[in-house]
Design brief:
- By secondary structure, the protein is an alpha+beta fold.
- 15% of the residues lie in helices and 23% in strands.
- It is built from three helices and four strands, in the order αβαββαβ.
- It has helices at 14-18, 44-48, 78-82; strands at 26-30, 54-59, 62-68, 88-92.
Length: 99
């Protein structure tokens, strides 16, 4: 008989996966190819976000950098459709960038 020790992380059950229940909710993830990283001013994703989960950090000499407030993100995907560079996708919450 095998038992899982406390050092092994326990994932969701097959039943939970079948029902669409995951350990973390899907959130928007902005890729490294964001137009702001290429020096192009763009706020399309922030304008499309009804939950106001996308904020912009000012940077000296560069356009503001977009970041996701994972606690506020609903995972609706509106920002994905609005992104002209197609650099936003839904992924697992990383626990970072929470304002």
């Amino acid at each position: 008989m095998q038992t899982q020790g406390p050092s092994q992380p326990q994932g969701p059950s097959r039943r939970a996966l079948f029902r669409g229940q995951f350990l973390t909710k899907p959130v928007a993830v902005i890729g490294d190819e964001c137009l702001a990283e290429a020096g192009i001013f763009c706020r399309s994703c922030g304008d499309a976000c009804a939950a106001s989960a996308i904020h912009f950090r000012p940077r000296i000499g560069l356009p503001p950098q977009a970041f996701i407030n994972e606690a506020a993100c609903t995972g609706c995907g509106e920002c994905i459709a609005a992104c002209p560079g197609a650099t936003i996708a839904l992924g697992a919450a990383r626990g970072g960038d929470i304002a």
